Amino acid sequence: MMKKTELSxxxxxxxxxxxxxxxxxxxxxxxxxxxxxxxxxxGFDHSDDAAAYELCGEEVLVATTxxxxxxxxxxxxxxxxxxxxxxxxxxxxxxxxxxxxxILAVPESLSKETVRAIVAGGAERVRAAGALLAGGHTVxxxxxxxxxxxxxxxxxxxxxxxxxxxxxxxxxxxxxLGSGIITVAAQGELVAADxxxxxxxxxxxxxxxxxxxxxxxxxxxxxxxxGFGLLGHTLELxxxxxxxxxxxxxxxxxxxxxLDFARMGFIPAGAYRNRDFAASHVExxxxxxxxxxxxxxxxxxxxxxCALPEKEAEACLHELHLHPETAEAALxxxxxxxxxxxxxxx
Amino acid sequence: MxxxxxxxxxxxxxxxxxxxxxxxxxxxxxxxxDNGAAKENCLRYGQYQGYRVEIAAEGxxxxxxxxxxxxxx
Lengths: 346, 73
Prior knowledge:
The structure holds 2 protein chains of 2 kinds. By secondary structure, chain A is an alpha+beta fold. Helix content of chain A is 35%, strand content 23%. Chain A has a 7-stranded mixed β-sheet with strand order 8-11-7-12-9-13-10, with helices on both faces. A 6-stranded mixed β-sheet of chain A has the order 1-2-3-6-4-5. In chain A, helix 3 links the parallel strand 4 and strand 5. In chain A, helix 2 runs parallel beside helix 3 and helix 8 packs across helix 10. In chain A, 53% of the residues are buried. Chain B is α+β, with helices and mostly antiparallel strands. In chain B, a hairpin with a 2-residue loop joins strand 3 and strand 4. Helices cover 37% and strands 36% of the residues of chain B. Chain B has a single domain, classed as TusA-like domain (Translation Initiation Factor IF3, 2-Layer Sandwich). At the A-B interface, helix 4 and helix 9 of A face helix 1 and helix 2 of B.
């Protein structure tokens, strides 16, 4: 059961479930002039996790921002989850977070203790990532929002994007799915404390270890699974790589309780937006509806999903399983030549 | 028949209202919602609890009628 706090009343549409749908975002960005610059390696036209800008000497600057309303009532945990989620965009590009700034909006009624706890949670994750928290900006707002702008570095030949997946690649996912559904069910006080602890711990966990391990295995493409859900982000990966993806439903890691909560209708509105956006590109006719719901479920602080050479997959998975942070990583599918649909979930 | 008006509420509020009402175990319920997510979620909850669910669009809103399956036979 979730302890009621000042943040409890704000968590209705929260975490990455608050993310604007990909379709609506696409409409907004239409007509926004793309700036071309040889140093801009990844811009907003790539639907990628972060922007990448080439500095001198093969060094690439990776920049991102991410913030959302509280998905949990505990302010410190909220800060940790929001920061881990923002930092993840740097890891998804293969980068090392260096510098972070707070982005904070709070109702005037919120106590200083609560606001301090949010920021303290975020600062703890930034430190854990080995980066520096160097400032920020705070405004009053009816809805609390917290997150970070983060800058990181990566060598140009180690930069991962969501493009680059090739037929013959294996797909690995490093965290279990279901956080959106569990978070919604938690608002109905239906989730056991030990399950919540596990799910919240997963949401606040850095993707640093996952990035460290994947770096040694020749990753071709990478993204993190967040607001658009597994199928939304996998769709972007397939589309950017000009290939199709076969996902093995029986191999997907997910929080077991999420299946039953999905059957009960504790599904974030964002999951339906994700389905509306991606479903025409997905063949999943034989899949149980609740499992499909989990695949469209918006994740907050989800894992990395990467395409890497099939011959590397087994060793990579073995190595991931040696670390408690990535013990639930799984080989979830493979990349094939482009077919009629981008994704086949069986 | 119990009627629930869940218009203006976003998830999970409508499904929580339905859950509270269904505890009484009546044969027939009507719940009115005004967004697609609430419609889908209440449909799932009704089916999960063993009800047959009929959905009618009412302008911007959806009316879901839940019938206890035993009551039909």
